[in-house]
Amino acid sequence: MQQRPLVDMTLSHHLAYVAVDGIDGSWSFPHSARPGRDEKTFVADVLDDLRQRYGFTHDRTVIGGFSIGASMAWYTACQQGEKAVAMITFSGVFWDPLPKAEDCVADVPRIIHFHGTADQTFPLAGRAIGANFHQGNAYDSMAILRSRAKCDVKAAKTITLDGVECDDVPGCIRGDSIMCIHDGGHEARADMLDAALTAVGFPR
């Protein structure tokens, strides 16, 4: 792990850090630039293995990811979100064409997503990757999961996590949906992870 501070911060919250990876460092989620492995089955197999061998339970599992790994986490929340209590992601969301709310068949867990206004690798508005692929819009992606989770968007309030103002939408099926927009770039910082893990209830 090159992002060792993220590992150390996770361990400090009394959680194991399980690093999964796509083939050749990429992922094959819907509409990604790297078609290949059935990632939904792969992630399901990993979660089943962790449960069977180490006793991991959904109420102690947090899905996470950065950049394209965050995109993979979003598709996991959409398809298998009931297997985790929360999702914490940085600088990556769905890809175009975006799924519809009804395409997400899982009970979406509570969400905290960080994204930078200066991110040029995965901009908030998304961007084209070559002629055939396009990263999705972060606001539109969040709206999809909030709709699937039946969040009360009219009750949105502003909170602060790690000094970043966040849009906190309550009333969701399994917990608040929080989007934190900072003025940084394409990054995942340990201090942000610290604040997010605390916000979703770890340590317990």
From TrEMBL:
Question: What is a single Pfam family found in this protein's UniProt entry?
Answer: Abhydrolase_2
Q: Where are the transmembrane segments?
A: none
- Keywords (A to Z) from UniProt: Hydrolase, Signal
The record places domain Phospholipase/carboxylesterase/thioesterase at: 51-137
The record, for InterPro entries, names: AB_hydrolase_fold, Plant_Biomass_Hydrol_Est, PLipase/COase/thioEstase
Output the superkingdom of the source species.
Bacteria
Instruction: List, alphabetically, the PANTHER family matched.
Output: FERULOYL ESTERASE, UNNAMED PRODUCT-RELATED
The protein in question is named Poly(3-hydroxybutyrate) depolymerase
Organism in which the protein naturally occurs: Rhizobium calliandrae
